[in-house]
Amino acid sequence: MSSVLVLGLGLMGPAVARDLLKFELADRVVLADLDPERVGRTVEELGSGRCEGIVVDLRDRRGLVEAMGRVDVVAGAYPVAAVREVTEAVIEAGVHLCDLTGSAEAFNIFDYHEAALKAGVAILPGCGLAPGLSNALVGQGAARLDRVEEGVIYVGGLPARPLPPLEYRVVFSLDTVIEEYVAPALIVKDGVTTEAPALDGLEDVVFPQPVGRCEAFLTYGLGTLAMTGPELGFRNLAEKTVRYPGHRDKMALLRDCGFFSTTPVEVDGAAVVPRRLAAAVLTPLLQRGDPADVSVLRVVVRGEKNGRPAGWVFEMVDFYDPSVPETSMARTTGYTCSIVAGLLLSGRIRARGVAPLERIFADPGLYAEFHEALSRRGMVVRESRLGPGSGPEGT
Predict the structure, then answer these.
(1) Cβ distance 327 to 293 under 8 Å?
(2) pLDDT at position 1
(3) Which of 29, 192, 248, 387 could be disulfide-bonded to 51 (CB atoms 3.0-4.6 Å)?
(4) Residue 11 and residue 295: Cα distance in Å, rounded?
(5) What pTM was computed for the model?
């Protein structure tokens, strides 16, 4: 009997669980979170006899390992700060892991490759939308070329009906959003992984209507590609966040004025952390409007094929579906993870050790299965070939 532990029941975890149940990817789904009320509510909402809920504290190593030891795969939707604890626990428990982050400051997932190999487990870091689907598309694009040169990932979650002044609505943790605007972006430049200031590299991008013209700027979302990009042959590789025009300059102003700083300042005799104050002020502003959202993803890979310039463009525009209880961002993130978990359970993914998606889905057969599974969920990835003139040749 196959089983999956969904670890973390915030915005993304329930989407992972719902998809596992709907497509019968696992015989049993265990829902785990620190909050017992959240566990009970999610079990009730899913309404399936094939799922159960447990309370798990990520700081309790023994309890965490015991919970993991009763399943085949852990699908991680936990806070990024817990990535080290969870990674070490799955190795100790001897179970596979696919998670939504796989990275954190001062943490290198590849440091656990040998230990995971010895334990006979697969660790697939960053299995969401980006990192995740974006990495898979970069890997597949590179595999179709004889030599790769450059790549760019454009990705963003946008409100379907944006409201001023920021033209944005929070679809996941606001603190995570702020960190994207502050933390240096890891990019590959001239074949070497290096840092670039967040919000740099501003450019216009256009997506099919009704999305239209947007802007894109550097953020730190390459995930494992920051390390594997040079190995794949990329001279230049970056990830850029997509927003509606004007958003970047407004956030840069707040950042540069110190509102995103974590250094306390004194206000009327009290120590105040500017970022916490900014989050408190911005959260209600960025929660206005209805939940309808749009997820956009474009991956461009360029290089050579048969001695001539060539490349591929992969593009997905996914709209909020009011018939399901998740935002587009939750679906595209959570469903990518559940599909990967299903491929692990079925034995289609046989890699062991730390196995990033850009390597896993370089295989054309496995990528075709992945692509078809996405399409069944309405996540349609369209492909265009780039010719010598860098324009699309076909779809």
Answers:
(1) yes
(2) 87
(3) 29
(4) 15
(5) 0.95
- Which residues, 6 or more positions from 316, have their beta carbon under 8 angstroms from its beta carbon? 133, 295, 296, 297, 298, 332, 379, 380, 381, 382
Band the pLDDT of 393: cuts 50, 70, 90. Answer: very low
Ranges of each domain in the chain: 133-325+380-394
State the Cα–Cα distance between residues 77 and 182, nearest whole angstrom.
Answer: 23
> What mean pLDDT comes out for the span 83-103?
94
The enclosing H or E element of 32 equals: strand 28-33
Give the tens place of pLDDT for each residue, 308-354: 999 999 999 999 999 888 999 999 999 999 999 999 999 999 999 99
| SS3 labels along 111-124 | HHHHHHHHHCCEEE
pLDDT in tens, 160-171: 999 999 999 986
Among 3.40.50.460, 2.40.30.170, 3.30.300.30, 3.30.360.10, what is the CATH number of 133-325+380-394? 3.30.360.10
pLDDT in tens, 254-263: 999 999 999 9
For 207, list phi and psi in degrees, rounded to 5. Answer: -110, 160
Half-sphere exposure of 273 (CA within 13 A, CB side): 7
Inter-residue contact 386 to 310 (CB < 8 Å): yes
The predicted model gives 77-93 an average pLDDT of 94
Task: Please report which confidence band the pLDDT of residue 177 belongs to, taking 50, 70 and 90 as the band edges.
Answer: confident
Q: Where are the alpha helices (DSSP H) in the chain?
A: 13-22, 36-46, 61-68, 83-93, 113-119, 133-143, 174-182, 225-232, 247-256, 274-285, 328-345, 357-360, 364-376
Q: What does DSSP say about strands 308-319 and 382-386: parallel, antiparallel, or unpaired?
A: antiparallel
**What's the Cα-to-Cα distance from 80 to each of 280, 285, 298, 339, 353, rounded to whole Å?**
21, 25, 25, 21, 20
Residue 112 identity: Y
- Residue from 6, 155, 139, 141 nearest 68 by CA: 6
Sign of CA dihedral 126, 127, 132, 136: positive
* Relative orientation angle of helices 247-256 and 174-182, to the nearest 10 degrees: 80
- Cα-flanking dihedrals φ and ψ of residue 273, to 5°? -85, 115
What's the pLDDT at 395? 35
What is the predicted pLDDT for the residue at 103?
74
Residues 6 or more apart from 67 whose CB is under 8 A from it?
5, 30, 32, 54, 56
